[in-house]
């Protein structure tokens, strides 16, 4: 009889193969009773939303060096947080991160110890609250991220698509969570999905659950999780202007609105992003850039101009500022604006694009 997947099996595997991550307590220490730092668990989980581990690690290390406690992070300015976050994408997370830090600091500096309490904080949803409660506080919560969803969908060969898939997976996970090591179990499942049960070409021969995996039995692992047909993303267009001051190479920058897409981030003057063909400034066109957001794809026509005075284009804000070359890379620039700058200033090696993907 084929043995069904168990928490003991995956924990034994995790004890030998756990990834060494800067926010994680190794399993040997965890078994000895060492608890994870809630601040580090929270910070890493917020950063890891829609982003790879490899991309997050340098940001995490920078944040924890500069702001080693939640109180220190709460005392930072909005501009400091935006600049430090630039390149991680999904910028609303940075605003929620700061708001959450302030709320925790005002409450005495200690995070709530339950998933229900954590879910009441800004930027913490069902998955993140369960992950923090499980990993940092030992609550036997059902943690379901994309990796865990894929593992369970394959082991049980679940044919459902979202949102029913997530509910089905959570039911299976709830029956597996061990009361004595819920945090290690959650991290073991994440590691299994990230390193063995990968989206393509899973290493099933190395999987501790291979004997009980229904997808392995049927030989159709890569079919799961089943995805509903993707809807075509709408396409928008816009114009961006890189205006350079010849005397020192400074670039004219603006602040985006405090609400909406890329809220509060730094940008170059730009038109509205709509389906219509945008108007153009009186400047030299240096080419289009493409960028894909969660809900739409964007093409920006990039123009470059020079002048000692701020740009005269009606789309430019009169409340902007000049950012000298040595400061430009430190601005809170979203990736799309880095692409704009790279198009206009191709010789600037410091304006590199940051790696950003959607899986851990």
Relative helix content? 25-40%
Terminal residue distance: 34 Å
Report the portion of residues in β strands.
Answer: 5-15%
Element string (H = helix, E = strand): HHHHHHHHHHHHHEEEEEEHH
Label the overall shape. Answer: globular
Mean pLDDT score: 93
Radius of gyration: 23 Å
Which class of secondary structure composition applies to the elements?
A: alpha+beta
Uncertain runs with pLDDT below 50, 5 residues or more?
355-359
Beta strands, count? 6
Helix count?
15
| Largest β-sheet summary | 6 strands, mixed
At a glance:
With 360 residues, the chain is of the alpha+beta class. The protein contains 15 helices and six strands.
Description:
The chain is globular and about 70 Å long. Strands 1, 2, 3, 4, 5 and 6 form a 6-stranded mixed beta sheet that branches. The longest helix has 15 residues, at 92-106. The model is unreliable at 355-359 (pLDDT under 50). It has 360 residues and is an alpha+beta fold. The chain is built from 15 helices and 6 strands. α3 (38-48) packs antiparallel against α9.
Highlighted features:
15 helices, 360 residues, globular, single chain, alpha+beta
Layout: helices, strands, pairs:
Elements: H1 7-17, H2 27-31, H3 38-48, H4 53-66, H5 70-74, H6 78-85, H7 92-106, H8 115-118, H9 126-137, H10 146-155, H11 164-176, H12 182-195, H13 214-218, E1 235-245, E2 250-255, E3 266-267, E4 284-292, E5 297-306, E6 321-323, H14 325-328, H15 335-344
Parallel strand pairs: 1-5
Antiparallel strand pairs: 1-2, 2-3, 2-6, 4-5
Helix pairs in contact: 1-12, 3-4, 3-9, 9-12, 10-11, 10-12
